[in-house]
Amino acid sequence: EAHEQYLFQIIFQRASQLHYLVTYEGYMKPTDFDPPTGERIVSYLSILACSGRSEKLRTFARGLVEKVKTIGPIVFAAPELGRFSTAGGLGVMVDELTKGMVSLGMEVYVISPVYTVNRKGETGYLQRDGFRWTRNIDVNLGTHVVTCGMYEGQEHGVNLIFIERGDYFPKVYADTGTQEKLLQTIILMSLGSLEACCHKGLVPSVFVTNDWMPAMAAGYAKNGFFGSYFDNTTFFHIIHNLGDGAYEGRVYPSPQQGLFESVHRLPTHVLVDPWWAQKIVNPSRCALLCSDSWGTVSPSYLQELLAGHPLKVALESAKKPFGFPNGIRQADRERLLREKGAQDHAAAKELLQQKYFGFEQGDPSIPLLAFVGRITSQKGVHMILNAVDELVNHTGGKIQILVGGPATYSDDYSASCARHMHDLRNRHRWCFWAAPDEFFTDGPTVNLGADFGLMPSVFEPGGIVQQEFFVAGTPVIAYRTGGLKDTVHEWNDISREGNGFTFENYHHNDFTFAVKRALRVFSMHNDYLELRRSAYDTTIDVAQVAWAWTSEFHRLRNAMFTRHHMLEDDMKEAVLTDSDSSFELVSSTRAVKIEYMGGGTSVAVKGAFDGWNQSWPMKMRDDGVAEIWLRLAPGEYTHKFLVDGHWVVAPDAPKKEEDGFENNLLVVP
Asked: Which terminus has fewer CB within 10 Å in the chain: N or C?
């Protein structure tokens, strides 16, 4: 029976996905039937759970309902987050994804460090935004125990938990000074996130670690550090960037330090690959070997990782890793473009030409190419700088290239680019602008005002910048790697499809040839306008991304995606349908309405209808009365109401005492 239930669980979960694949991912709708939603399937299973023709059928249905319903809390552990501490794409992606999942009705938490100073150099930013200290938690770092502060609050429906320990979290990705402290910072983030869940009584259905800082969480949860607390939790690891050793969070112990066994206290093999020439403590290896599965921010980057990454063996331990491109909150971004950019492309371009190139009024005939981002070797900024002289000569000086982003002079690559920028700006005042000593603040204006975005990244796991250009209607010139390969497509002037220009080989001539193809289309005004429209149409909204990840988490749990407010309506429709003759129900069942008139914002009912198996969410009517429709056989049914988290008896309804407990009584004649 358990095996049969498991098979049905998978069948129903897969069947429910088809409706959402049609809705969110563009799958072709079947011609002969409407794919059922998760709500519809759960509604009919719930009727069977209450009024199935036999006790065996009712028991079977009750077990299925409990297993296939929407999963419980999803917890993300992330080293950076949104406006608080974003340093790159990870913070943006987690921020956007979690808000999108809340919009789908999911219960979502994010656990992240609170840094002594945020990315703007501000202190005390959490208190200013209304987040409050709730408790202290102790975390064992192997050599000693540290006490951390815990702050909580909510933003856009996402529950936020911040862990404070200034000597370990001074600022995002701070240099820890020693290898032992680097490992202890990782342990603090990993163990601290799990401790926070325990202190709140929060049992995640899915616990999602992001990159290397919280990567050891699955290792601790599955090696007895918390007893059985996380036994029913699915652990999932998202790889945002696994480009080199630094992005893996590698820790390099000295020969005298051994492998830091007394610090991490985990089985050595989950952290150290015995076949590597150098013994390295690798938290990313721990995440891959101990998590139930992993995913990344684009299908192409997933394939690149499996093809030849140093952690290939650990990556292959997952049966079915997941990849989906990043997206943005399109409506919010369009609002930001209007508020901080300009009314349209032409107006934004004129603002850029006036502010950065000294024009008194704009010249729409001059193509404006722009890069916005960090000055790092990954982003390939040198490719742009090395092409400036050639492109200025090629266009007779009728081109403008803007590079927005600060340089880090402690990094040799970044410092070299900064010197090159100063030289180009001195020689091409009207054609080139960069200010590597300043923080660039006009990103939205550039997204809207540029004629082309430049993304010559050497590697780019997912990328969010291309979506910020696309939502403004700006095509992108990009190297075909990782997530850029999945999202930037060469403009086809015959089919009139595409959103930019790409180059296959990472070489100067290939890059400049892509730019020259873009300039040719720019010179044909109508074609260029059509390209901008096409670029806008390819924007990936975070709703698609949120659905994709939510679907994957439900797949891992063999659960169906259901929305409470729609489940209530589907239950009513299914109950009011006379289905005795076509459904395996006890004869003479009838539709019964249960009401609760005592107020409250969240009301559910639980009772003998299905053997006290589940809480049934009730729909709140406009008159403040909560109701639910059930199909029940004649008989007596004791029940109780869960109102805003508290079990209560409705004072205006019949009551019955059982074993010293008072419940409401429903009699179905």
From this structure: C
Torsion of CA 306, 312, 316, 318, to 10 degrees: -90
What is the third-level CATH fold of 74-323? Rossmann fold (3.40.50)
Give every strand in the sheet of 476-479, ordered side by side.
432-434, 400-404, 368-372, 452-455, 476-479, 500-503
CATH fold for the domain made of 2-69+559-668: Immunoglobulin-like (2.60.40)
Neighbours of 18 (CB within 10 A): 17
Q: Identify the CA nearest to 85 among candidates 213, 155, 172.
A: 172
Cβ contact 613:568 at 8 Å = no
Share of the chain above pLDDT 90, in %: 72
SS3 state at 639: strand
> What is the pLDDT at residue 423?
98
> What are the residue ranges spanned by the domains of the chain?
2-69+559-668, 74-323, 330-539
CA distances, 68 to each of 14, 43, 265, 327, 383 (Å): 11, 12, 36, 28, 51
How far is residue 557's CA from residue 60's CA, in Å, rounded to a whole number?
Answer: 18
Pairing of strands 626-632, 432-434: unpaired
Query: Does domain 330-539 bear CATH number 3.40.50.2000?
Result: yes
Residues 6 or more apart in contact with residue 613 via CB below 8 angstroms: 49, 62, 65, 66
> Across-strand partners of 591?
631
Query: How far from each other are the two terminal CA atoms of the chain, in whole angstroms?
Result: 33
590-596, strands of its sheet edge to edge: 590-596, 626-632, 619-620
Closest CA relative to residue 467, chosen from 92, 102, 87: 92
Q: How confident is the model at residue 14 (pLDDT cuts 50, 70, 90)?
A: confident
Which of 27-31, 220-224, 242-246 is predicted least confidently?
242-246
Are residues 559 and 69 in contact, defined by beta-carbon separation less than 8 angstroms? yes
Q: What is the pLDDT of residue 282?
A: 97
| Partner residues linked to 500 by β-bridges | 476, 490
What are the tens digits of pLDDT across the range 530-586?
999 999 999 999 988 998 999 899 999 988 777 766 777 787 887 777 554 455 676
Average pLDDT of span 1-24: 77
Q: Name the residue among 245, 252, 189 with its Cα closest to residue 219.
A: 189
CA-wise closest residue to 179 among 191, 171, 170, 187: 187
Residue 471 pLDDT > 90, yes or no?
yes
pTM metric for this prediction = 0.83
Q: How far apart are CA 114 and CA 160, in angstroms?
A: 11
DSSP classification of residue 29: P
